[in-house]
Amino acid sequence: MKEILFVILDDFAEWEATPLSAAINQTDGFCVKTVSITKKPVKSIGGFTVIPDYTLSECIDKEFYGLVLISGKSWRTDEAKQVAPIVDKALLRNVIIAGICDASVFLGTMGLLNEIEHTSNTLEDIQNYIGKKYSGAKYYKNQQVVRSQNIITANGTASLEFAKEVLLGLNIMPSQEVEQWYRFYKLGYYEAMKG
After folding, report:
1. pLDDT tens-digit readout, 29-41
2. Which of 47, 63, 102, 114 has CB atoms 3.0–4.6 Å from 75's, for a disulfide?
3. Cα dist from 52 to 20, 141, 173, 194, whole Å
4. Which one from 42, 56, 86, 101 is the annotated catalytic residue?
């Protein structure tokens, strides 16, 4: 099974993960594994408790097919800095790296958004939080989601759009299936069935 790693920290936004994780886990040959700083239970903003499959340190030498950073209230803490080595590993392996909401800001703190098109919650937020380390303002797009090379960024209201772009980036199912999946959940059962 090809593993897609989902990094979750305390107070993670579970609604940003579930559309994507469900689609991946239902695709033959692929599975989702959760990763955190330790294997202690991680609680979501909505009250779900998850026991991570792996610690960050266990993943440094692991094979993985994609890396998804799920947002929440911990990406602007010192604790989040411990995620940087696995992002660096993903860069070296040339796999998809996806960050939604504050996790996209975290990618910006690593300098990954300085020379590629990207999005987040707002340009002003990235500029204010990252400061002089961020020089990618001319590449910022006021869009729900942006895929540039192997990096996917999205704002916090774009869980379905984020999932769609990650599925397309991972190339784990035909693009037509991804589009049908997206229409079904975006438009609802009856509208999507109209064609």
Report:
1. 999 999 999 999 9
2. 102
3. 17, 33, 26, 40
4. 101
